[in-house]
Amino acid sequence: MIQVENLQKEFKIHHINKTLHAINDISFTVEKGNFLGIVGKSGSGKSTILKSIYGTYKPQSGAIYYNSESFGKINLVCASPREILYLRKYEIGYVSQFLSVMPRTTALELVEQSLLETGVSFEEAHEEAVSTLKHFDLDESLWNNYPNYFSGGEKLRLNIARAVVKKPRLLLLDEPTASLDNTSKVKVRESIEKLKNQGTTLIGIFHDLEFMEGLCDEVFTMQKVVVNSIET
Questions:
Q1: pLDDT band, residue 39 (cuts 50/70/90)
Q2: How many CA atoms lie within 13 A of 45 on its CB side?
Q3: How does 180-219 read in b/e, with b if 16+ C-beta sit within 10 Å?
Q4: Beta bridge partners of 74
Q5: Per mean pLDDT, which range of 5-9, 12-16, 202-206 is the poorest?
Q6: Can you tell me the mean pLDDT for 27-51?
Q7: How far from the centroid of its chain's Cα atoms is residue 119's Cα?
Q8: What's residue 177's pLDDT?
């Protein structure tokens, strides 16, 4: 489903005239329907890999080959903004620790919109949104409220709901259980297992190794770059 080859990403900090190396020569392959877990110390570049796949970051070199349903084999590093936006809408989902949404949009509307943008009817989007919010135990009194007033755990559960409701072909998970209690973690695991059984390919970052046990098909361990900055 996805093949990462010799990926390198660095960030230039102009005001101090330095270049920070985030990832260097990263390569791995994930077969269709499998779950790859990425582990490593903070600062080793785990999130940079996911953001490079999702198109948030553009690597300096390397390739990310994705087997798209619509475009066939496509190198995401070279994909156009239009292609990236299309893939985000229809094929690739991303869950981060943070929720960034338009103001004055309710929790229910956010999950509905995730499906409506793919072309399903409002009735189907509403039914799926209600079912998903119930699964993640988001109190029904919050459904018509704005997420700005939610706790960190409630925001994270809503973020996960928005991603999984679309049943993406590829789902990227960046610490999806970071601020969740044990009950909520179980709900997240159930959803991940369901998506995996339905054929979704997953790549996830977790510090909770117990959560990963029995869930991932393979684990990729990051090594922190020894020299993480140079004068430019």
A1: confident
A2: 26
A3: beeebeebbbebbeebbeeebbbbbbbeeeebbeeebeee
A4: 66
A5: 12-16
A6: 89
A7: 22
A8: 76
Task: Calculate the CA 8 to chain-centre distance.
Answer: 19
SS3 percent helix, strand, coil of the chain, rounded to 5, is: 35, 25, 35
Measured CA to CA, the distance from residue 185 to residue 201 in angstroms comes to 20
Residue 154 amino acid letter: E
Rounded mean pLDDT, 134-161:
83
Instruction: Give the CA distances from residue 186 to residues 99, 164, 176, 215, in Å, rounded to whole numbers and listed in that order.
Output: 20, 15, 12, 12
Strands (E) across the chain are located at 2-13, 18-30, 35-39, 61-68, 72-75, 92-95, 170-174, 201-205, 218-221, 229-231
What is the rounded distance in angstroms from the CA atom of residue 166 to the CA atom of residue 211? 23
Topology of domain 35-58+81-221, CATH: Rossmann fold (3.40.50)
Other beta carbons within 10 angstroms of residue 79's beta carbon come to 18
Tokens at residue 120, please?
């399903």
- What residue type is assigned to position 170 of the chain? L
Average confidence (pLDDT) over 77-93: 93
CA angle, 224 then 230 then 232, to 5°: 145
pLDDT in tens, 98-113: 656 566 889 999 999 9
- Reduce the DSSP state of residue 174 to 3 states and report it: strand
| pLDDT (average), residues 207-211 | 74
